[in-house]
Amino acid sequence: MCGQMCYGYLVLTLIVLCDISFANKYCAKIDFNRPIYNEVRECRSQNHLPLASKSYATNKDFLRYRPNSMFYLANNFFNYSCVEISMELKIDSNTVIEAALYLKSINHAFVEFNVYEERTHELIKSIHTDGTTGWTILRGNYFRNIPNARVEIKAFMNEYSRLGIEFLHITNTAIKVPECTSDFTKPTKPPTMTTTLIPTSTTSTGPIEISSKNTWIWVIIGLGVAILFVVIILICVNCVCSSR
Q1: By the 8 A CB rule, do 10 and 225 touch?
Q2: Mind listing the pLDDT tens digit for each residue in 60-77?
């Protein structure tokens, strides 16, 4: 009986490990409601300055998408800005990209979410917008199978345009785990733009860090699973010793 329980615990642990690993390869949910982002980094293939964290405390141009949001992703400089997701993803026909986006576009400003094949640098898909009416969920799908995809956010902005991105979700309709399920938050009321636009400052509004390291959340999850695995092994060893 003890051996059967031990075997069952081991199988359950392996299933949990496989689910986490599988979801982590196919999906990513990045919330920009923080002053520091570890999930994105400067675009390596293009010589553009990165997008950065900005605070709603100093934003007088548009309201937040979610009532509790304190920060959002935006341009810190004029002309082109770009960040890319730190990890490679597997993308297929079930992949869906969703982003909460605000773009007040003047003089040809635009934002696009690009999907590249990492090895060949081939552009697979570009989800482009040159302006929104208030906040919107920008959505794109119908991708072909890409085992090593790179996703980037690229913006072209000027002093009179305004940009805000609160989150980016890359999900998969065929994978039924929370990490791969679309659950974007709808706003409580439609945010609006103020009628007067003033040129934005190119000075940072808060701490900015672009890093290629995994987030501390995944570190904690990994440590927790490792501790659980060790505990199960100790239980199994105890069972073996007790049966002798």
Answers
A1: no
A2: 999 999 999 999 999 998
Is the pLDDT assigned to residue 10 strictly greater than 50?
no
Q: What gap in Å lies between CA 60 and CA 201, rounded to an integer?
A: 12
Return d(Cα 105, Cα 99) in angstroms, integer: 17
Q: Residue 11: pLDDT band by 50, 70, 90 thresholds?
A: very low
- pLDDT score recorded for residue 116: 94
Kindly list the structural domains of the chain, giving each domain's residue range(s) and its CATH number in brackets, ordered by start: 27-214 (2.60.120.260)
For 226, the enclosing helix (H) or strand (E) is helix 216-243
Of the candidates 222, 137, 150, the one whose C-alpha atom is nearest the C-alpha of residue 186 is 137
Nearest to 115 by CA among 99, 136, 131, 133: 99
